[in-house]
Amino acid sequence: MTDQTLLIVEDDPGLQSQLRWSFDQYKVWTADDRESALAAVKRHQPEVVTLDLGLPPDPGGVSEGFATLNDILSMAPQTKVIVITGNDDQFNPVKCIGFGAYDFFQKPIDPTLLAFVVSRAFRLHALEEENRRLQRMHITNPLEGIVAASPEMHEVCRTVERLAPTDITVLLLGESGTGKEVLARALHALGPRAKKPFIAVNAAAIPENLLESELFGFERGAYTGATQQTKGKFELADGGTFFLDEIGDIPLSLQPKLLRVLQERVVERVGGRQPFKVDVRVVCATHQNLAKLIETGRFREDLYFRINEMIINIPPVRERTGDVAVLARAFLEKFAKQMRRAQLLGFTDEGLAALEAYHWPGNVRELEHKIKRAVVMAQGPLIDAKDLELLPTSAKRRLLTLREAREMAERQAIGMALSEAGENVTKAAELLEVARPTLYALLTKFNLKV
Ligand SMILES: Nc1ncnc2c1ncn2[C@@H]1O[C@H](COP(=O)(O)OP(=O)(O)OP(=O)(O)O)[C@@H](O)[C@H]1O
């Protein structure tokens, strides 16, 4: 027997038991009036219901059946209700479907046909559930490897999705640790070059005198110690994506050579005389203000125009509405699993308040490190401000309106509850102590696509 649950609402005991036996491959529950039907829906959450329209106290009519249909669908809108009636009013089918029933059946019942309709209803329900699950995942995982609940980051992710299939050079602007590299990887992974290399170079991390050969490669004998020809990173990225992080740190002397690669996709190794073509998609990033660097003569304007075909501004964590809680939760799960600390369940209210109040100058990277440390340090089942080495600060933040504060809190609570409930809306609604329809209404209100 499967876990698929069927509720048969039928007041005729003979028909009820006939139906019960013909569906023994499902978990079957029965009810014979509106009250017991609603109790069974609440308790057993059947995916499919067969509903006799003629229920007491109106067994010869349809009023009680329609009221039951209406109540079931208000309580559990995803349920597939198959209406069965002996009443041959030709308008009933239209009315039932208009009320949200999945299908309509006239008595006498053809068991083979009904079995077929019921199994199709289960299939459709499963497909819709899977669809809802995928959409819910999208709330906190808008892109592979990216955790975000804020509309600001969802917008960034949508832009990444739109740009991924193109070869447009993208410039990612954002403070350190905001996720520029993760987004560059997403641009690569979602595009046609996904199976080819993704090569990242951080210009700030490589000494100036080594940067040219790192980027463009060198020929044997190009300088003392150059014992063999070596490929540069551009060449290694051939066919794929080249991610140049901290482009603002590229020395002025190298900028013309870089401009040439970007303009003509041509590379020349240090000490080489034969320029050759490379096929790369280029993504650049910086936390610096390039306009200022241009003003002070440290960055070429023509290079700037080359790399800014499309700019994506990544907001700092303190400006993302509702991201801190879901990021914290995701990192807690990741590190608790890695470090086998399954007893860690979440954050104390004070811990969460401290996370929210902090201004995160190091953005997601800092948040990740703080949670990692706290997972090691925490003694009880909940992480508090002390474990995080944070005190609720009085750091100046823009004063929120009451409405903004309420919405932010609601959004965070929903994100946390969904994450806690493994993305199961029913469980999340229980954790939040609201009815499922209320949670759905809130998800819609916050444009969370369920
Ligand atoms: N939205 C996110 N969801 C999950 N993890 C994230 C997210 N953003 C960033 N991270 C993680 O935070 C860390 C820093 O991200 P990343 O290296 O992409 O930032 P960056 O902006 O490139 O930093 P820098 O400017 O210092 O190079 C990484 O471990 C990354 O996996």
From TrEMBL:
It holds the Pfam family Sigma54_activat. Keywords: ATP-binding, DNA-binding, Nucleotide-binding, Phosphoprotein, Transcription, Transcription regulation. InterPro entries: AAA+_ATPase, AAA_lid_NorR, CheY-like_superfamily, Homeodomain-like_sf, HTH_Fis, P-loop_NTPase, PEP-CTERM_resp_reg, Sig_transdc_resp-reg_receiver. One of its GO terms (biological process) is regulation of DNA-templated transcription. Residues 5-122 form the Response regulatory domain. One of its GO terms (molecular function) is ATP binding. SMART domains: AAA, REC. The modification 4-aspartylphosphate is found at residue 52. This is Two-component system, NtrC family, response regulator. It comes from Methylomagnum ishizawai. Residues 146-376 form the Sigma-54 factor interaction domain.
